[in-house]
């Protein structure tokens, strides 16, 4: 990998960088859509590529089950299998083991779980995870980590953090021995739960291994459970402050627009999440004024596109909200149309950030975004605090600024509810 | 634009003097001709099918019912023409042409006499009461742009058992027609006779449209024996719904053309009867490791340079193309590897059978996208082949000869579709709607597949 920082925001910790991988150059900060089972649901790789995306995620756990390593080896890897000629990132499979399998037992050796097909006890070791990721052939691969829910407290958190470091060493060994280190790049995953001391120790250890690691992910903060946003941003900040500047930083499982921009301001370069594509299939369109629940009856007669300025095929082709309202729960094409729009929204969000950082206007970009997105309802308190910590005051020059405690996430609900 | 889905043959409540019962997205509704004409007026399609009275109650239908069907359908056509005339009274003939052109569904179901009677009434001089309102039309036929035949009610009337007999699972929306049990060729013969009965009294200049033909065999029969121009693509789309990639061409290759010995792309299965499948059931385990393109009968664009004279399947699954434009979202995106990529013209490799097999078993939507694009392209190539044969000096004779060769080679029973449907159902139960509830039940009964007996 060739990683080069091109510009740094003078105010916040944001930066723009260029990351050259085996399947092309990606500009950071960026958002990575998730192609869980070797497909962005409903779209062809040609469609995804033309939206301006050249880095997506595949899921090791799922691909290992279906189609399985044999098929992937026969055809020469996941790129060739799914017809995606650009960059791929795979996670280690550890997260799904914990979240999808009812009975998974973590031991020092690895994660012991029941095969969903045969019920047979199967072990996923760090070495095995890296081997599977080698067969998949992704440009960025992740270490197997011992991940615990961010709600977990007690000695388990520390145990998981130290084990993650030991597993990182095993992953590094196995990866370097494989001869694939020049085409596939291994990332470490910082753990430590919500405990600043544990995080600090983890960071220290992992930074020692900097020369054997191509990038750092910040893990353990998004398990799908409701996050304590107040602690969340502090953990991100702590990690991003300490991690080396010449390595990309990846926050796993982050997809809400406000979360992404806060992370970028704190020094994160990449994130992935199923949220934008999943919410599209549920009929929600993402916009700079907040998410629109297209299934609500108020859109039934709205003949304008979701966003007049959006370059996605759905908006640029003039498809109206009324048409989407009618179609989105009846035809898969409705889901595809919204999926393309939401992917482009995420890309525009990050692209706007890149432009602003290059031009030294990132603080203004943040203020404008939050004013448009939350202005009518009130800023989430945690965003105000997080951005203040890097020198941006969202409330500056705003009369009667409303601040909402808690996650303040914005949703449109049915007026009939 | 049609009021009903022509392929929908499910039983409906009886139609009435002023309405038909149709199944729409919000359930069964009564639709009057007046309402239908209003909808047509708002939607402004190029063509619309006049609402007609086709019974969808349990067959057989009595003579009285058939007579009513003819009378109502004719009356509704008259009313529609009057409505159209009223709307364009202020317009010139030019203004008229902006109104949807009317297609009439040929009434009479499976009764040749009834069909003939309906068609004759279209050609008869208008009743005195209607003449003024409908001028300058002299007959109803003059106001009609083409003739439509729905094969589903015909098939149901000719078959010996009720569609409900085939419904093992009442929520199985794929089975709205009886498809097993009758010799397809025999029914097709009956079709031809009935359709000819409808067409014989009418002028030959107008296009004939057939809905729900279910195989290329049937299509060839209708083209040859009736003279049909337009067919819907339902069966090809339906094949995509259940995971079948079509793989056939028309006309067949010359006997003298040798098969490419270096080709690793397997043709569809040949059955015990000696007939070849029209496509591949990609659910089958046989395709899990088959990394070739979807159809053996056509090359993919990236291989085509090797044999320039072989036909290519130009669909986006077999011959994907690099998109011409890529959205850039920031100025520095000029440094990304997508920049300028649209100028590359290299052909991309085809999507493989193993990939589509994987997508089908993981219940991914993009399987359907790829298969629909492919199947419609194969169907398109089929019709291009039919037109090419007809263009030869003794076109009709040639077509009959080629059709015979085709029918001899390919399996009309569509066993491949039956097999695919069964596997589609399995995967849908395992991964489709309602699966979480079913899984919970299963987990409740036993812990096989989720529990690990660990002795540590």
Automatic annotation (TrEMBL), chain A:
<comment type="function">
    <text>Catalytic subunit of the queuine tRNA-ribosyltransferase (TGT) that catalyzes the base-exchange of a guanine (G) residue with queuine (Q) at position 34 (anticodon wobble position) in tRNAs with GU(N) anticodons (tRNA-Asp, -Asn, -His and -Tyr), resulting in the hypermodified nucleoside queuosine (7-(((4,5-cis-dihydroxy-2-cyclopenten-1-yl)amino)methyl)-7-deazaguanosine). Catalysis occurs through a double-displacement mechanism. The nucleophile active site attacks the C1' of nucleotide 34 to detach the guanine base from the RNA, forming a covalent enzyme-RNA intermediate.</text>
</comment>
<dbReference type="GO" id="GO:0005829">
    <property type="term" value="C:cytosol"/>
</dbReference>
<dbReference type="InterPro" id="IPR002616">
    <property type="entry name" value="tRNA_ribo_trans-like"/>
</dbReference>
<feature type="binding site">
    <location>
        <position position="191"/>
    </location>
    <ligand>
        <name>substrate</name>
    </ligand>
</feature>
<feature type="binding site">
    <location>
        <position position="341"/>
    </location>
    <ligand>
        <name>Zn(2+)</name>
    </ligand>
</feature>
<keyword id="KW-0963">Cytoplasm</keyword>
<feature type="binding site">
    <location>
        <position position="315"/>
    </location>
    <ligand>
        <name>Zn(2+)</name>
    </ligand>
</feature>
<feature type="active site" description="Nucleophile">
    <location>
        <position position="272"/>
    </location>
</feature>
<keyword id="KW-0819">tRNA processing</keyword>
<feature type="binding site">
    <location>
        <position position="310"/>
    </location>
    <ligand>
        <name>Zn(2+)</name>
    </ligand>
</feature>
<feature type="binding site">
    <location>
        <position position="145"/>
    </location>
    <ligand>
        <name>substrate</name>
    </ligand>
</feature>
<dbReference type="InterPro" id="IPR004803">
    <property type="entry name" value="TGT"/>
</dbReference>
<feature type="active site" description="Proton acceptor">
    <location>
        <position position="91"/>
    </location>
</feature>
<dbReference type="GO" id="GO:0046872">
    <property type="term" value="F:metal ion binding"/>
</dbReference>
<comment type="similarity">
    <text>Belongs to the queuine tRNA-ribosyltransferase family.</text>
</comment>
<keyword id="KW-0479">Metal-binding</keyword>
<dbReference type="GO" id="GO:0006400">
    <property type="term" value="P:tRNA modification"/>
</dbReference>
<comment type="subunit">
    <text>Heterodimer of a catalytic subunit and an accessory subunit.</text>
</comment>
<feature type="region of interest" description="RNA binding">
    <location>
        <begin position="253"/>
        <end position="259"/>
    </location>
</feature>
<dbReference type="Pfam" id="PF01702">
    <property type="entry name" value="TGT"/>
</dbReference>
<keyword id="KW-0808">Transferase</keyword>
<protein>
    <recommendedName>
        <fullName>Queuine tRNA-ribosyltransferase catalytic subunit 1</fullName>
        <ecNumber>2.4.2.64</ecNumber>
    </recommendedName>
</protein>
Automatic annotation (TrEMBL), chain B:
<dbReference type="InterPro" id="IPR050852">
    <property type="entry name" value="Queuine_tRNA-ribosyltrfase"/>
</dbReference>
<feature type="region of interest" description="Disordered">
    <location>
        <begin position="435"/>
        <end position="456"/>
    </location>
</feature>
<feature type="compositionally biased region" description="Basic and acidic residues">
    <location>
        <begin position="435"/>
        <end position="445"/>
    </location>
</feature>
<dbReference type="InterPro" id="IPR002616">
    <property type="entry name" value="tRNA_ribo_trans-like"/>
</dbReference>
<feature type="domain" description="tRNA-guanine(15) transglycosylase-like">
    <location>
        <begin position="189"/>
        <end position="394"/>
    </location>
</feature>
<dbReference type="GO" id="GO:0006400">
    <property type="term" value="P:tRNA modification"/>
</dbReference>
<dbReference type="Pfam" id="PF01702">
    <property type="entry name" value="TGT"/>
</dbReference>
<protein>
    <recommendedName>
        <fullName>tRNA-guanine(15) transglycosylase-like domain-containing protein</fullName>
    </recommendedName>
</protein>
<dbReference type="InterPro" id="IPR036511">
    <property type="entry name" value="TGT-like_sf"/>
</dbReference>
């Amino acid at each position: 990998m060739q990683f080069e920082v091109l510009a740094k925001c003078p105010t916040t910790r944001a930066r723009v960088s260029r990351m050259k991988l085996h399947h092309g150059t990606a500009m950071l900060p960026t958002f990575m859509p998730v192609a869980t089972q070797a497909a962005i649901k409903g779209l062809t790789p040609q469609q995804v590529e033309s939206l301006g995306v050249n880095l997506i995620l595949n899921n090791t756990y799922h691909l290992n089950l279906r189609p399985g390593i044999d098929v992937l080896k026969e055809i020469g890897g996941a790129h060739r299998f799914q017809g995606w000629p650009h960059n791929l990132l795979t996670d280690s499979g550890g997260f799904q083991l914990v979240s999808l399998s009812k009975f998974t037992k973590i031991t020092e050796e690895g994660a012991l779980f029941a095969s969903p097909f045969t019920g047979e006890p199967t072990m996923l070791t760090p070495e095995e995870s890296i081997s599977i990721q080698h067969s998949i052939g992704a440009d960025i691969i992740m270490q197997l980590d011992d991940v615990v829910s961010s709600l977990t407290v007690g000695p388990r958190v520390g145990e998981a953090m130290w084990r993650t470091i030991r597993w990182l060493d095993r992953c590094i060994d196995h990866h370097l021995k494989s001869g694939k280190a020049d085409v596939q790049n291994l990332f470490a995953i910082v753990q430590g739960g919500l405990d600043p001391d544990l995080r600090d120790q983890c960071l220290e250890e992992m930074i020692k291994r900097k020369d054997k690691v191509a990038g750092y992910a910040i893990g353990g903060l998004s398990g799908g459970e409701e996050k304590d946003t107040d602690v969340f941003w502090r953990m991100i900040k702590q990690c991003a402050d300490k991690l080396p500047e010449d390595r990309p930083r990846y926050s796993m499982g982050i997809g809400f627009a406000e979360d992404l921009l806060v992370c970028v301001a704190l020094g994160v370069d990449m994130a992935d999440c199923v949220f934008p594509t999943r919410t599209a299939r549920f009929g929600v369109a993402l916009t700079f004024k907040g998410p629109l629940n297209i299934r609500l009856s108020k859109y039934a007669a709205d003949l304008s596109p979701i966003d007049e300025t959006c370059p996605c095929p759905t908006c640029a082709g003039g498809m109206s909200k009324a048409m989407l309202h009618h179609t989105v729960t009846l035809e898969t094409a409705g889901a595809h149309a919204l999926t393309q729009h939401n992917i482009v929204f995420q890309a525009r969000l990050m692209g706007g950030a890149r432009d602003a950082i290059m031009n030294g206007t990132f603080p203004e970009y943040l203020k404008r975004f939050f004013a448009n997105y939350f202005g009518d309802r009130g800023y989430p308190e945690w965003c105000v605090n997080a951005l203040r910590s890097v020198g941006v005051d969202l409330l500056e020059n705003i009369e009667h600024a409303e601040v909402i405690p808690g996650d303040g996430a914005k949703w449109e609900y049915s007026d009939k509810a | 634009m049609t009021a009903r889905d022509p392929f929908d043959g499910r039983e409906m409540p009886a139609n009435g003097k002023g309405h038909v019962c149709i199944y729409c997205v919000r359930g069964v509704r009564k639709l009057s001709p007046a309402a239908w004409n209003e909808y047509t007026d708002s939607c402004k399609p190029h063509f619309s099918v006049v609402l007609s009275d086709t019974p969808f109650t349990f067959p057989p239908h009595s003579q009285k019912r058939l007579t009513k069907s003819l009378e109502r359908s004719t009356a509704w056509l008259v009313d529609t023409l009057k409505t159209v005339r009223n709307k364009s009274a202020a317009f010139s003939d030019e203004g008229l042409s902006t109104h949807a052109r009317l297609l009439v569904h040929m009434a009479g179901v499976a009764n040749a006499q009834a069909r003939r009677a309906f068609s004759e009434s279209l050609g008869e001089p208008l009743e005195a009461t209607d003449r003024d309102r409908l001028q300058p039309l002299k007959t109803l036929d003059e106001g009609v742009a083409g003739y439509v035949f729905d094969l589903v009610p015909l098939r149901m009337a000719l078959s010996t058992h009720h569609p409900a007999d085939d419904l093992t699972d009442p929520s199985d929306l794929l089975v709205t027609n009886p498809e097993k049990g009758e010799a397809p060729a025999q029914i097709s013969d009956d079709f031809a006779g009935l359709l000819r009965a409808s067409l014989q009294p009418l002028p030959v200049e107008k296009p004939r449209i057939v809905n729900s033909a279910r195989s290329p065999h049937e299509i060839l029969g209708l083209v040859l024996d009736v003279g049909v121009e337009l067919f819907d693509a339902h069966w090809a789309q339906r094949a995509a719904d259940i995971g079948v990639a079509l793989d056939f061409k028309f006309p067949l290759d010359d006997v003298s053309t040798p098969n490419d010995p270096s080709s690793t792309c397997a043709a569809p299965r040949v059955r015990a009867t000696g007939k070849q499948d029209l496509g591949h059931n990609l659910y089958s385990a046989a395709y899990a490791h088959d990394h070739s393109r979807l159809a053996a009968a056509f090359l993919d664009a990236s291989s085509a340079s090797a044999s320039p004279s072989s036909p290519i399947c130009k669909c986006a699954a077999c011959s994907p193309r690099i998109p011409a434009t890529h959205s850039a979202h920031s100025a520095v995106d000029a440094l990304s590897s997508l920049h300028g990529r649209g100028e590359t013209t290299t052909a991309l490799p085809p999507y493989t059978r193993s990939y589509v097999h994987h997508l089908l078993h993981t219940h991914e939507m993009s399987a359907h996208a790829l298969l629909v694009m492919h199947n419609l392209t194969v169907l398109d190539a089929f019709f291009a082949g039919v037109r090419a044969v007809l263009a030869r000096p003794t076109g009709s004779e040639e077509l009959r000869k080629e059709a015979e060769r085709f029918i001899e080679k390919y399996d009309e029973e569509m066993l491949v579709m039956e097999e695919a449907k069964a596997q589609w159902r399995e995967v849908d139960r395992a991964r489709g709607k309602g699966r979480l509830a079913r899984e919970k039940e299963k987990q409740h009964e036993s812990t096989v597949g989720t529990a690990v007996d660990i002795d540590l």
